[in-house]
Design goal:
Shape: globular
Radius of gyration: 24 Å
Helix content: 55-70%
Strand order of the largest sheet: 4-1-5
Strand content: under 5%
Structural class: mainly alpha
Number of strands: 5
Oligomer: single chain
């Protein structure tokens, strides 16, 4: 199997068009990584880096800012021009998708084909700018407050001048990343926004490896791990990747039959097909929604004075990572949003009506309402499995952190949103490359069968 993968990889560079797309994509990602090292004006980078290092060593990097820094590829910790990453664009895409499902006018626009897609995409861009400006403004206020940095002065000249320049710089950085993602979408291979997020996550791997080396070195003063622990972690990592891949691709195929239809010149024999219902329909979306809500009190309280937060700061402390209340609330929110998002993206009534219009039916089930009820029943049952799987993946970094006593940055590679995003994006990208290879009569990455893309999450990734 590994030799087949290597053969498929070498075939990628034998097709001139595909080779050009891959090199273009790699070039765009290199530009993104370069931008992650351009500092934002007016900030003491050395003092900020010292603060983040102290905070990381104190709690393993598992707090609000540490998690956000991981998904920005380390740009937030350095407070560079790309500190916000593409998360405002992702948030705007999710909001637009939800609004399209509940506002009839937007739903009508979305059904107008390519023209409607362009309108919705433009609204998403406007929303991205608004969200980026709001987030960057609060980041500027946060940077100006010495109390949040243990008395250190991060900003040399605080005031409206610094706030304005920070808002413009960080917002422009997000817009630039959005543009880079669209260029990959047009001229490269894979989903641009998804690849940018994945590149940021994987860029933290060398730092995680460095932490592991320090934990194994008895002279580093941090020696905690034994070699056998590293072996167990490697086996665990392989198992997690395999498990996430299998569940990500798992689907319940509901059989569908089409009646015979006589045309003017020929008769079409009824055919059998199926409706693929994914076990993990929500996946990444559910974790992002749950994280956004559960981290909101801590994010807001971090901008308040140390003794002026009152009830909000007490509540934020009560649901901090490591407390039982945090995990109970986190799991409840994930399960809720798994069902919520599944209900948004898959409407059994519409599917049943479309089947009825085209003469399709599920064997043993009456067309119409009974078909819709049956699809809803099946989807509800498989979503139980999917939501439990997402809950396990989401809390897995915390389990690794407690079991092996490693920093959160290291533990995050064993579960959580990062693993789901990375595996899903790699599967999608390999699927697109495999399609190009098969078009030119080359073998893909698998001898038998084909990779299935995670089409349900493409709207989240900006497709």
């Amino acid at each position: 199997m590994f030799s087949q993968f290597l053969k498929g990889f070498s075939n990628c560079f034998k097709v001139p068009e595909l080779r050009q797309k891959i090199l273009f994509t790699l070039g765009i990602l290199a530009v993104y990584r370069l931008g992650c090292y351009i500092p934002t004006p007016g900030i003491d980078g050395v003092a900020l880096n010292q603060f983040f290092q102290k905070m990381s060593s104190a709690n393993g990097g598992g707090n609000v800012v540490g998690i956000m820094d991981m998904f920005s590829g380390g740009a937030l910790g350095k407070m560079t021009v790309l500190s916000l990453g593409v998360m405002p664009y992702i948030s705007s895409s999710i909001i637009m998708q939800l609004l399209t499902a509940v506002i009839p006018a937007l739903e009508k626009i979305s059904k107008e084909g390519q023209a409607g897609y362009k309108v919705i995409n433009q609204y998403t861009r406007y929303g991205t700018v608004v969200l980026a400006m709001i987030q960057s403004f609060f980041i500027a206020l946060w940077l100006e407050s010495p109390s949040t940095f243990g008395g250190m002065q991060i900003v040399a000249h605080p005031g409206w001048g610094f706030r304005f320049s920070t808002v413009m710089t960080l917002t422009a950085g997000t817009i630039f990343l959005m543009w880079l993602g669209e260029r990959i979408q047009e001229k490269g291979v894979g989903n641009g926004t998804s690849l940018i997020i994945t590149c940021g996550i994987l860029s933290r791997a060398p730092t995680a490896y460095h932490y592991l080396i320090l934990l194994l070195d008895p002279n580093s003063g941090q020696g905690q791990l034994q070699p056998i622990a590293i072996v167990l972690m490697c086996f665990f990592l392989v198992g997690v990747i395999i498990g996430v891949t299998l569940i990500s691709q798992a689907q319940r195929r509901v059989p569908v039959q089409y009646a015979r239809r006589a045309g003017s010149t020929a008769t079409t024999v009824g055919q059998g097909t199926f409706i693929p219902l994914k076990v993990d329909t929500a996946g990444i979306i559910a974790i992002i929604f749950a994280q956004s809500i559960i981290l909101f009190p801590a994010t807001i309280s971090s901008f308040l004075p140390a003794h002026g937060g009152g009830v909000l700061q007490h509540f934020a402390a009560w649901i901090q990572r490591g407390h039982l209340a945090y995990y109970m609330l986190y799991a409840t929110l994930i399960v809720f949003f798994c069902y919520f998002y599944t209900a948004i993206v898959f409407n059994p009534v519409d599917v049943a009506e479309n089947l009825k219009k085209h003469g399709g039916f599920i064997p043993g089930i009456r067309p119409g309402k009974e078909t819709a009820d049956y699809l809803d029943y099946v989807l509800t049952r498989i979503t139980v499995v999917g939501s439990l799987y997402v809950c396990i993946i989401a809390v897995m970094p915390d389990g690794i952190l407690s079991l092996f006593k490693v920093p959160y940055l290291v533990a995050s590679f064993f579960g959580g949103t990062g693993v789901l995003i990375t595996v899903g994006v790699m599967l999608d990208t390999m699927k697109q490359i495999e399609s190009h290879l098969q078009m030119h009569h080359y073998e893909g990455f698998m001898k038998s069968g084909q990779l299935r893309s995670r089409s349900t999450n493409r709207s989240f990734m900006g497709a």
